[in-house]
Amino acid sequence: MASTLGTVEFLVDQMAGAGSVSAKRMFGEFGLYCDGKFFAIVADEQLFLKPTASGLALLGQPDEVPPYPGASNWYRIDGERWDERDWLSELARVTVAALPLPKPKKPKS
Q1: pLDDT tens, residue by residue, 54-92
Q2: Residue 2 and residue 23: Cα distance in Å, rounded?
Q3: Residues contacting 24, CB < 8 A, separation 6+
Q4: Residue 95 contacts residue 49 (beta carbons within 8 Å)
Q5: What kind and span of H or E run contains 13?
Q6: Where are the beta strands (DSSP E) in 1-109?
Q7: Of 19, 16, 12, the residue nearest 36 (C-alpha)
Q8: How far apart are CA 59 and CA 53, in angstroms?
């Protein structure tokens, strides 16, 4: 089941306190970016965050599952926590802070 645009827009709005959060379509689902860093996936109406030590500290014992077949495990965020705007923004902020800057793209020749 593909994720709906409404779900993605809701999550982007909920995490707006983390920085400049945006979504891009990826393989029929959505990737979430904050300040230019890819940090989450919305797939099958579920939210998955890249695993980081700081994210783990906030989550305690997260559900670790792959967001799609063949992927490594990411932290699945329970839908019951999506309404907690401040907590979700903080989780996004600490996750993004722990991730490296994206590699510069090579110019097209």
Answers
A1: 999 999 899 999 999 999 999 999 999 999 999 999 999
A2: 15
A3: 30, 31, 33
A4: yes
A5: helix 5-14
A6: 21-26, 29-34, 37-43, 46-49, 63-65, 74-77
A7: 19
A8: 10
